[in-house]
Design goal:
Elements: E1 2-6, H1 13-22, E2 26-31, E3 49-53, H2 59-66, E4 71-74, H3 81-86, H4 88-105, E5 111-117, E6 129-130, H5 141-154, E7 159-164, E8 166-168, H6 179-189, E9 192-196, E10 201-206, H7 207-219, H8 221-224, E11 228-231, E12 237-239, H9 240-250, E13 255-259, E14 271-272, H10 275-278, H11 288-301
Helix pairs in contact: 1-7, 4-5, 6-9, 6-11
């Protein structure tokens, strides 16, 4: 297939793009390279890879790229509540406006596979699983823009959405701010972390399983289209304290304690059912333990010490 990925040089795209190319797809990436990343350099040897530096909000940039596309995966986003709060105009125009523009420009026959966040569930009911039929209650601007984008996407016939759990795992465009990635980095380097809202639960998913779920949806699009799907590990509906306990099994010197100060701007506290996706035949390959082991190896390479002498 000919696949257009906006934001394809980001954390997710830097794993998804080479994965799709390795399977024989033709991939075009549109990215503004905001973080000056060179994460797609390894893809340039593929004759089936094209890259465009540009703005995903610009219709004139999008039109010639969409003319060649069978499927579109809009990864471009201002990701996370803190970053969205810093630039609310960009959050609105990228997370929602650019998706609206895509929907306006796409031919009805073209496929659209939209990732959003399952933080749209906000605060769940104690002991009750959030399914795709559960009411959405996004707290942050980030969650609100992504939920609105999903609503727009699912109004098209040839679309589906993935409500992604909190992502973890190594990527060429690494993010240390994601919860599992952050806690493992601190456990390895600081050997300690102070937790707030330690009882808050959420679901997790490895970045390579996200790449795999997009391939699964492309291969099964006709039977999956028209619906949202939760994407996470069934065995990993864990609180922050429970997550730390799992990390401690791999790094026994790691210590953690809970403080009464601090709060999650997304107020994420819910457990999630991924049964709808499992019913399509998809199975994850990366457990939380396997991902932690991967991160420990990765952090032997990565040190977040740009302004330090050691």
């Amino acid at each position: 297939m000919n696949i257009l990925i906006t934001g394809g040089a980001g954390y997710l795209g830097s794993v998804l793009t080479p994965h799709l190319l390795s399977l024989g797809h033709t991939v075009t990436v549109l990215d503004n390279f905001l973080f000056r990343q060179a994460t797609l350099a390894e893809c340039c040897h593929y004759e089936t890879f094209q890259v465009v530096r540009g703005d995903c909000r610009d219709p004139e940039t999008l039109k010639p790229l969409l003319a060649e596309a069978d499927a579109v995966i809009p990864l471009a986003a201002i990701v996370g509540a803190p970053l969205c709060n810093e630039d609310q105009t960009a959050a609105e125009s990228v997370n929602f406006g650019a998706v609206q523009t895509l929907c306006d420009l796409l031919d009805p026959a073209q496929q659209l596979l939209m990732p959003i966040t399952n933080s749209g569930y906000g605060i769940g009911e104690a002991g009750k699983m959030c399914t795709e039929d559960s009411p959405l209650n996004p707290i942050s601007l980030y969650g609100q823009t992504k939920v609105r984008a999903e609503e727009t996407v699912l109004q098209r016939d040839n679309s589906l959405s993935f409500r992604l759990a909190t992502v973890f795992g190594m990527s060429p465009r690494m993010r240390l701010d994601l919860l599992v990635n952050d806690f493992v980095y601190r456990a390895l380097n600081d050997r300690a972390v102070v937790i707030f809202e330690g009882h808050f639960k959420r679901n997790y998913i490895h970045i390579r399983d996200i790449a795999r779920v997009f391939v699964h949806a492309l291969d099964n699009f006709d039977s999956m289209k028209g619906r949202p799907y939760n994407v996470g590990l069934e065995e990993a509906n864990l609180s922050k304290l429970e997550l730390c306990a799992v990390i401690q099994q791999h790094l026994p010197k790691f210590q953690y304690l809970e403080a009464s100060v601090g709060e999650d701007p997304d107020k994420r506290d819910y457990i999630v059912s991924n049964q709808r996706l499992l019913d399509t035949g998809f199975r994850t390959e990366w457990t939380l333990d396997r991902g932690i082991q991967e991160l420990i190896k990765g952090y032997t390479i990565i040190r977040n010490a740009q302004y330090s002498n050691v």
